[in-house]
């Protein structure tokens, strides 16, 4: 089974491709290659806006201050009597940001383009390793593996991680949403921007479906047992958060008590 | 000394270097992607401790070199640190609150701002702004691998304390070698050579933890549940020690602050 078959098989939920991958000794590596390809492809477009911002000429100082004032006006929700006080600071902060961004790089103005390229390459290479990509696969893989084993699952950790990494295949289409967002921002055509949330929803749903299917194949579960594992995992996660905040609250309360009882 | 009695030291050939790089890549890839053979291979080495030590040292040196190169790139492509500080300070001093301060307070404010800048700037800019910082950066070629090695030995010792009972035949060194493989995810830090922020979040710690569990399972030929417990034990111990230290520090500091400190 070559890479193309595996990638298309992941996108089309091909059971044979999933089962063939499960039996390979390098299952995690193969699954990761799918994630790496989708991540880098999405990153190529996702990192464009930031890189472009490095080489786009800055607006004038007055324009920047006007934009900052406008954003402050729209977003301020504090007490009305404090508004004029804060307003005075907005100009200074906007002016400081403008002046810092206008400073020339040490190697000269030509280095701005180099910074843009380095920034872009760095962000593209880092994309597959962020929490949104492999970080999520590792965290959820560890959580669901523990629960699945408890429910009678039979996957090794490598099988679980390699198989569920296939779920990132649809995220290659984040490249499309990135391009649409960029076009929408540049052209001010709202229709492009409006499509993005719908596309993101489809990608998320597609990812979730592949994840459940991949876990079912990895653990030799039925689809329903796989869904049950995900639900139970969610419950465990929420319970863990609640316990964490209770413990944190108890620790803070204990600290307050200790502070109050220490002799003056 | 005659020429004949001298030991000849030949530079390694390109083919040897390439072979070594390929071997390192195979080890790294196998360790990252949980290949059982790689962890077993390391455990069964003639000198497992030396092998693990060398592997971690190489990883540490590569991370440090990437850090130095990255700092150099940031130094060249970012504006002068003093210029940034001056712009920020000028704008802060133009803020309404500054004019309400008396001259002494204004001077004190500037001193504090300068001190704060010297602490924060290297973190924000990503390159050292003082001679000490520069020396620390260069020394990272030694300190980074050393830190990784100390962490590896301490973590390994605590794991061995818990896990040796499960498989008494496993020697400390035989456990350390596979555990060295579990430091592989740290090499992902070389991407920080590029001027990007800390984008990995929990990726490296999580991946390392998973590799640790895998290494412990293979070293002690034990179950996943036990391996997870052994891998968690040093982390839990550190966490508890940290909490105890914080509580003790608070108990020591609080009475002093209540009485206004030593007179």
Task: Indicate the topology.
The complex is a heterodimer of chains A (264) and B (263).
Chain A lengths: L2 H9 L3 H8 L4 H20 L1 H8 L5 H15 L7 H20 L8 H16 L4 H20 L6 H8 L9 H14 L2 H30 L3 H39 L3
Helix pairs in contact in A: 1-2, 3-7, 3-9, 3-10, 4-7, 5-6, 8-9, 8-12, 9-11, 10-11, 11-12
Chain B lengths: L13 H19 L3 H8 L4 H30 L3 H13 L2 H4 L3 H23 L5 H33 L8 H10 L21 H18 L3 H35 L5
Helix pairs in contact in B: 1-2, 2-8, 2-9, 3-7, 3-8, 7-8, 7-10, 8-9, 9-10
Notes on the protein architecture:
- The complex is a heterodimer of chains A (264) and B (263).
- With 264 residues, chain A is mostly helical.
- Chain A has helices at 3-11, 15-22, 27-46, 48-55, 61-75, 83-102, 111-126, 131-150, 157-164, 174-187, 190-219, 223-261.
- The N and C termini of chain A lie far apart (75 Å).
- Chain B has 263 residues and is an all-alpha fold.
- Chain B is 73% helix and 0% strand.
- The radius of gyration of chain B is 25 Å and the shape is globular.
- The chains are: A mainly alpha (264), B mainly alpha (263).
- At the A-B interface, helix 3, helix 6, helix 7, helix 8 and helix 9 of A face helix 3, helix 4, helix 9 and helix 10 of B.
Beta percentage of chain B is: under 5%
Instruction: State the distance separating the first and last CA atoms of chain A.
Output: 75 Å
If you average the pLDDT of chain A, what whole number results?
Answer: 88
| Silhouette of chain B | globular
Helicity range of chain B: over 70%
Q: Provide the residue-averaged pLDDT of chain B.
A: 87
Spatial extent as radius of gyration of chain A: 25 Å
**Segments of chain B where pLDDT lies below 50 for 5+ residues?**
none
Structural class of chain A: mainly alpha
- Going by helix content, strand content and strand pairing, the class of chain B is mainly alpha
What string, H for helix and E for strand, traces the elements of chain B in order? HHHHHHHHHH
Largest interface: A-B, 51 and 46 residues
* SS summary, helix count of chain B: 10
Helix residue percentage of chain A: over 70%
Give a count of the beta strands of chain B, DSSP E runs of length 2 or more.
Answer: 0
Largest sheet of chain A, if any? Answer: none
Oligomer: heterodimer
How many alpha or pi helices of chain A? Answer: 12
Overall geometry of chain A: globular
Which percent band covers the strand fraction of chain A? under 5%
DSSP strand tally of chain A: 0
